[in-house]
Write a structure and sequence with these properties.
The complex is a heterodimer. Chain A is an alpha/beta fold. Helices cover 30% and strands 26% of the residues of chain A. By secondary structure, chain B is α/β, with parallel strands linked by helices. Chain B is 39% helix and 18% strand. Chain B has a six-stranded parallel β-sheet, sandwiched between helices. The chains are: A alpha/beta, B alpha/beta.
Chain lengths: 220, 150
């Protein structure tokens, strides 16, 4: 496979290394001529080229026309967008992949037909979110193509819902608490069930209302 | 008309002032406050500081009501991306892009965008001036010459 990587930052370097290790033919394009020497020492001079990956003359010399995949991983979303679009429109490259630095730009990339994007910020944030609120509300499944979420919520003594009977809770619309786990024992949830700290409750909630449910169980 | 211009460089500022003088409502989006000096005093434009690649900045600038969006910064890729944000995220009816690289402009023209390439207009004008040929309509200059094709 011939892979062209545009952008010789850390992401581009690591990516090129991995692809080379896998036995692929790789060319790393870097706009800043000053850092090409360092990149060549790391990856081999035949795998690095100085030039702006958005310039058609550079693209021609780099061999965009025979590339199996073009991967744009610069720090600028507009550059990554244009590289991928030129690869598709001008050079008819089958597979393009863009790094999206600002997660807000992801919908645009999808709308203009660059379906393969990687957003480091997005990935790190979702990992972080799981770490920060690990035990409040976890998705365990989805029904009706994701319209209904099956979630597991854990009560702490600071949850709004702790110490309340289920019938007294103001649940979001169409939301049902179905089952709970208390001291390793499963219980059906009923109207007069008293929720206590340490309980793990399984609930069905429409996707649009899951934030409201989260609020009810989150710490005050 | 409600006009939105991204970039208050020489092109953006001149365009803005000319359109204001003709009675249009112009809003400029510019990242660098010191670029606004080009507008002079009492210029009559609305100005929003920020990037035309950011949807919230564009909304603050009133893109939902805009009749036309000009991408006129010095960065080709910023212009090309901002134009696509205007088209796909906000459905602005008319969009015009400044694109200095004639080859890039040619590629995006094929995608249906209106791209103006200053170097082509200038070179065409200079050529005709030297050779004493009559000036042509702008479209005749604003096309990729065979000599530049790759």
């Amino acid at each position: 496979m011939y892979a062209i990587v545009v952008g010789g930052g850390n992401v581009g370097i690591q990516l090129a290394k991995r692809l080379l290790q896998r036995g692929d033919e790789v060319l790393l394009l870097e706009k800043d001529g000053g850092s090409v020497g360092r990149l060549s020492a790391m990856l081999g001079a035949e795998n690095v080229m100085a030039g702006d990956g958005c310039e058609m003359a550079v693209q021609k010399r780099a061999g965009f026309g025979r590339a199996d995949v073009v991967i744009a991983v610069t720090g600028e979303d507009e550059d990554n967008l244009v590289v991928c679009q030129m690869a598709k429109v001008v050079w008819d490259v089958d597979r393009v992949l863009a790094r999206v630095n600002d997660p807000d730009h992801e919908p645009l990339f999808a709308q203009v037909g660059i379906d393969n994007t990687v957003s480091a910020t997005g990935i790190i944030f979702s990992l972080l979110e799981q770490q920060v609120t690990p035990d409040v509300m976890l998705p365990v499944g989805a029904l009706a193509r994701g319209q209904i979420e099956v979630v597991e919520v854990k009560l702490s003594n600071r949850s709004l819902a702790a110490g309340q009977r289920v019938r007294d809770l103001v649940l979001p619309p169409q939301t049902n608490l179905v089952w709970l786990l208390r001291d390793s024992q499963g219980l059906m949830v009923q109207g007069d069930t008293m929720l206590t700290p340490g309980d793990t409750v399984v609930a069905l909630v429409p996707r649009d209302h899951s934030a409201a449910l989260h609020k009810l169980f989150a710490e005050r | 008309m409600k006009v939105l211009i991204f970039g208050c460089g020489r092109t953006g500022s001149t365009l803005a002032l000319e359109l204001v003088r003709r009675g249009h409502e112009v809003t400029l989006i510019e990242q660098n406050p010191s670029a606004l000096i080009r507008l002079g005093e009492n210029h009559g434009c609305n100005v929003v500081l920020g990037s035309g690649l950011e949807e919230d900045t564009l909304e603050r600038a009133g893109i939902r009501e805009a009749d036309v969006f000009f991408a006129a910064t010095r960065g080709d890729n910023s212009n090309l991306m901002a134009a696509q944000v205007a088209r796909f995220r906000f459905q602005v009816p008319r969009i015009c892009i400044k694109c200095a690289d004639p080859l890039r402009a040619d590629a995006y023209r094929k995608l249906g965008y209106v791209c103006v390439t200053p170097s082509l207009l200038t070179a065409g004008f200079m050529r005709d001036w030297l050779l004493g040929e009559p000036s042509q309509p702008i479209e005749a200059y604003n096309v990729l010459p065979d000599t530049l094709k790759i």
